[in-house]
Design goal:
Layout: H1 2-14, H2 20-46, H3 52-64, H4 68-86
Helix pairs in contact: 1-2, 1-4, 2-3, 2-4
């Protein structure tokens, strides 16, 4: 939750379009849902909590526990602003 809050407020403060801060929440929700689905599938189908699905789930949670989401949203916002000013 700390990274979600930090990424949200960083995107809200830096991005010119405030709607982009909502994308941070959407991306974190997507990461959490995909990770949960992967773990549930692994538990229900394979009857274990380790395996390739666990590795995929941990990889997704690793992305959620890094500033990559904020970097992606802020960088895409800056690129979008540059394209809009050139037109």
């Amino acid at each position: 939750m700390a990274y979600l809050g930090t990424s949200y407020y960083a995107a809200k403060a830096i991005c010119a379009i405030k709607k982009n801060a909502r994308w941070v929440v959407y991306i974190y929700a997507l990461l959490l849902v995909l990770s949960s689905i992967s773990m549930a599938y692994n538990y229900v189908i394979n009857h274990q909590l380790s395996g390739d699905e666990y590795t995929f789930s941990r990889w997704l949670m690793g992305i959620a526990q890094s500033p990559l989401v904020a970097f992606f949203v802020i960088a895409s916002n800056k690129l979008f602003n540059n394209i809009q000013t050139e037109q």
